[in-house]
Please model this.
Amino acid sequence: MSLADRVARLEQQQQNQDQYRTNLLNQLQQMQSQMQNMQGQIEELQHQVQQLQDQNKAQYTDLDSRVGRLEKTASANPAPAASSNGPASSPAAASTAAANPAAPAAPSAPAESAAEKSAALNAYNVAFKSLKGGDYVSSSRGFREFIQKYPNDALTPNAFYWLGESYYATTNYQVAVEAFKHLLNQYPQSDKAPDATLKLGYSQLEMKQNDAGVATLKSVVAKYPNSNAAKLAQERLRRLSQQPSR
Model:
């Protein structure tokens, strides 16, 4: 081979090596980019899991606290005990009995009220136990029956919230929205209002109602700025703002 041919051959080999290195570098950069994206997705999923765990813990703690207060109230206000001559009557009933000894004694309303509260609490706990156990079909059925049977109970607002949660967990977002909206419309002062508004926003986002969902999450921050729900709403809004626009 002539000197010129040898030089040309070496230059060709050098070009091939440079192209090979360039291809390797491009592949390495692509792999690094993919790893960064995967790492970001993993961190986001971990963050979401932690948020769900924190929210569930707060919700269960709140419920345990409410149940404890109800139990203390029931203990502090027991049903009146029957005397040796029969159940105690009200002053008006006593006056009527004095005027007419044959008249029957009036029924004890507090005892009936206490019994009804006990039955309502038991029904609520059964539905909530199903929810904690992941049996969302049974929990939704239990909370619906509770609401129908005890519409004026102190736990009815909570029952609407957990009913919505049961539907949300099974991706029945439209029905969940109805439950959360009913709670917010009928019981706007409920302690569950912040969480219900938050989950309403989540449900709207899942239904691709992005404008409504964002507006609802912003309302959580505006109405309940110091709540845990507001922190979760802010975090979700932050993630939404970082998503590329389509």
